[in-house]
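User: Sequence recovery, please. Input:
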């Protein structure tokens, strides 16, 4: 591990109430680990409660629309930006559901239930295909044992409470 500010090799030092924390001898400061944060969105069409699943380029599995939170950006700003960038759909409202660490990409995922209006979809270069599904169909085709499946199941429970 190296300091993200000066490039010096970090060592582990004990910090009261924190335990072992990376320390930069050149900067003279503790350097807490940094990892990215992203939003994962269960997109629901307002007119019929169908859920949008996507296949990314080079991937055969259906997943959720997701995106990294940019430096200085809130999750609430990321949601409409990412949805618009990847599909041209507009987010009408959203609700935070849960968070989950996604080991495969060393990232903290924040799950949201996002309602969008009906509208035409134009995909960006990251997305190969999208599909509107009933909640039951979405559960059947989502990538099994994935972070996407976890957020989908939480969202479907939430949608069931609204009936």
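Assistant: Recovered sequence (163 residues):
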């Amino acid at each position: 591990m190296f300091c993200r500010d000066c490039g010096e090799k970090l060592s582990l030092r004990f910090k009261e109430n924190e335990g072992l924390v990376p320390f930069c001898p050149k900067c003279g400061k503790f350097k807490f680990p940094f990892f990215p944060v992203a939003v994962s969105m269960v997109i629901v069409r307002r007119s019929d409660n169908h859920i949008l699943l996507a296949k990314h380029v080079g991937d055969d599995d259906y997943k959720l629309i997701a995106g990294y939170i940019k430096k200085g950006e809130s999750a609430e700003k990321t949601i409409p930006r990412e949805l618009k960038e990847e599909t041209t759909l507009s987010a009408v409202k959203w609700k935070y559901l849960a968070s989950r660490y996604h080991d495969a990409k060393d990232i903290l995922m924040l799950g949201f239930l996002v309602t969008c209006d009906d509208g035409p979809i134009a995909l960006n270069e990251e997305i190969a295909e999208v599909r509107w599904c009933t909640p039951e169909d979405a559960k059947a085709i989502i990538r099994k044992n994935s972070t996407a499946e976890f957020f989908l199941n939480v969202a479907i429970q939430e949608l069931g409470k609204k009936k």
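DSSP finds three helices and ten strands in the chain.
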